[in-house]
Amino acid sequence: MKILLLLLAAAGLCWGQYNPNTVPKRTSIVHLFEWRWQDIAEECERYLAPNGFGGVQVSPPNENIVITNPNRPWWERYQPISYKICTRSGNEEQFKDMVKRCNNVGVRIYVDAVVNHMCGAAGGSGTHSTCGSYFNTGTEDFPAVPYSGWDFNDGKCHTGSGEIENYGDIYQVRDCRLSSLLDLALEKDYVRSTIAEYMNRLIDIGVAGFRIDAAKHMWPGDIKAFLDKLHNLNTQWFSEGTKPFIYQEVIDLGTEPIKGSEYFGNGRVTEFKYGAKLGTVLRKWDGEKMAYLKNWGEGWGFMPSDRALVFVDNHDNQRGHGAGGASILTFWDARLYKMAVGFMLAHPYGFTRVMSSFRWPRYFQNGKDVNDWYGPPSNADGSTKAVTINADTTCGNDWVCEHRWRQIRNMVIFRNVVDGEPFSNWWDNGSNQVAFGRGNKGFIIFNNDNWNMSVDVQTGLPAGTYCDVISGQKENNKCTGKQVVVSGDGKANFQINTDAEDPFIAIHVDAKL
Ligand code: AAO
């Protein structure tokens, strides 16, 4: 018996990397893409904590190359020069202040860890980096780390170009360069230790976990080797023995030999099928319809729910990078996007991440957005603009702030309210009108058909009058939007016309009059 308990305890400790380390009843995180640390600190205090957001994925905090052609693209931050905390988002002091202030209000910080590679091979030599550290891509010298030629994979890659040429060859994908990015030799203990040292500095500051960038391009065992060197989380905010939350960026749409499941031993994995499929369904492409969402999740061939990190769009596929293609819904398709995010947040599958973007001058030529490189809103000197807040609570300076859209923010709250409740009371009309509940805590209904809907359906909720949290919410014991009356038998009538601003309605027990 004792041995069994010990084994269980040990298992409990080593399995901690799947737990997002959010405070109880905070069930989603938001990616504040390219935000400055000082703006995130304020957002934690003034908006995220009061609205029940669990945490923030921040852009890579370590020093990166400065690219001027094109002019300061967002993707320069995926080309590390050193592990100094020093980027357009801010310096180390500002980073520490953000982590402290966010943690103090129960909002966790997750760092995007770019550790598969350094900058591109054509980066040149000099000090054109965000902290002025010298580097030379010709000799593969990064003295501010330090890394030198021995620390890169060149010898191991067997393609003529040194690049990944074929995603069907698992060796190329792990041992060759991803779009010319200098590929670190992660089998070396020195490289593993250097990466772990960087991540441990962040853990000691108080971060709660990491997104592992380009995880598909590293061997799962190499990732495990540096994760095994990580500290437990800072006990100022986390209980003794807490491991960092790990989610690995592995693009597995089912068409390549590398599978997301190979990485489950290390932590969660991004489920890219989720956004690609949900976009296809809501756009009604390929004969898809919402009625088919009845067995959404594992039933659609997705990974196990407790291993999945899910999202409707991410910083890559919202602008045609990465994978997912044209079906991906983004803020540019606002009406369908809100439905997709609403569906995701209501549905129990996976751990959810909400995207928060900046606007750019999207411009398609031959089906490709030629402005996909545009960096964050910035001043003439290249510095990132502040996130300003308008009187109506939206953001200024071209920050989109999807997480502040009423429908999305209220669904983040919905997910917290229904946390732990089963998927229940599914209803559909065989087409694109569907509904489901979460036990006796919440209910959501969609009309994505092009005809009006009026139906009586079982909600599973206690009798009473509820405020729809999509068209409005409950304020001072009144509904600012639609009202829904649930009768004694749990049934309610829902009407959604095709011209509704948002063709879906959501109610939950915290929005009951
Ligand atoms: C930039 C320039 C490059 C230049 C390089 C170095 O754009 O021209 O060579 O600098 O100077 C970001 C940008 C890149 C940028 C890079 C560095 O997106 O454009 O390069 O920063 O500044 C793959 C990886 C995945 C990666 C994704 C973008 O597997 O890890 O590409 N995402 C992360 C980050 C991302 C970042 C990096 C990694 C690098 O989120 O922001 O790059 O740190 C297939 C594979 C996927 C592969 C895609 C794209 O996908 O499966 O693994 O993603 O191709 O190459 C269908 C298929 C699907 C396929 C897809 C696209 O949907 O089903 O499997 O088509 O073909």
Automatic annotation (TrEMBL):
CDD domains: AmyAc_bac_euk_AmyA (cd11317). Residues 1-16 form the signal peptide. Residues 27-415 form the Glycosyl hydrolase family 13 catalytic domain. It catalyses: Endohydrolysis of (1->4)-alpha-D-glucosidic linkages in polysaccharides containing three or more (1->4)-alpha-linked D-glucose units. Keywords: Calcium, Carbohydrate metabolism, Chloride, Disulfide bond, Glycosidase, Hydrolase, Metal-binding, Signal. InterPro entries: A-amylase/branching_C (IPR006048), A-amylase_C (IPR031319), Alpha_amylase (IPR006046), GH (IPR017853), GH13_cat_dom (IPR006047), Glyco_hydro_b (IPR013780). Pfam families: Alpha-amylase, Alpha-amylase_C. GO terms for molecular function: alpha-amylase activity; metal ion binding. Its EC number is 3.2.1.1. SMART domains: Aamy, Aamy_C. It is an enzyme of class 3 (hydrolase). Residues 424-512 form the Alpha-amylase C-terminal domain. Its cofactor is chloride; Ca(2+). GO terms for biological process: carbohydrate metabolic process. Belongs to the glycosyl hydrolase 13 family. This is Alpha-amylase.
